Amino acid sequence: MCLKIIAFGFVMDENSYLSESWSKLDCFIVSTGLLDTFLSGVDIPFLKVLRLLRILRPLRFLSHSSSMKTLIEALMASIPAIGNVGVVIMIIFLMFAILSMNLYAGKFQYCSIESSQITNKEQCLAARGTWYNYIQHLDNVPQAMLMLFCLANGEDWNDL
């Protein structure tokens, strides 16, 4: 960082050190690392955040590889398009969550007493049991969307 600042200048020149975004990231990582090193004996809660920023150190190596820079810049440029696809998927999930609520609301419940004769809440309460919802149910929109998401990505779908 120091050699680049001496060679190119810090801010004012056209090709200065801070004119490139990768150099800004490098400056931020090095500065927080130096600040953390100088204040290592002091116990201030804010310094824990500086210590957490150590995980950004491998990003400094990205500034040396032009192919990795190109890849990261292309990934960052595609984020708005990915966001648009995410919005469409959320709308579709919302539609199916509302449909599944209309079809299956109140169906994923059970009694604490295990008996084949107990089939509804009144029978369960008459037998002095407690009527529970399963962990995954379709009684409200957020829970229905979560259940549909689990089914769509295959995570714990067999438990559902």
Short description:
This protein has 160 residues and is mainly alpha-helical. It contains seven helices and two strands.
**What is the strand tally?**
2
Straight-line distance between termini: 54 Å
Shape annotation: elongated
Report the uncertain regions: none
> Gyration radius, to the nearest Å?
28 Å
Structural class category: mainly alpha
Strand order of the largest sheet: 1-2
Overview features:
two-stranded antiparallel ribbon, 2 strands, 160 residues, mainly alpha
Task: List the topology elements.
Blueprint: H1 2-8, H2 21-38, H3 45-52, H4 66-77, H5 79-104, E1 109-111, H6 121-126, E2 131-133, H7 141-153
Antiparallel strand pairs: 1-2
Helix pairs in contact: 5-7
Protein model, in words:
With 160 residues, this protein is mainly alpha-helical. The chain has 2 domains: 2-77, no CATH class; 80-153, no CATH class. The protein contains 7 helices and 2 strands. The protein has a two-stranded antiparallel ribbon with strand order 1-2. The two termini are 54 Å apart. The model has no long low-confidence stretch (mean pLDDT 83).
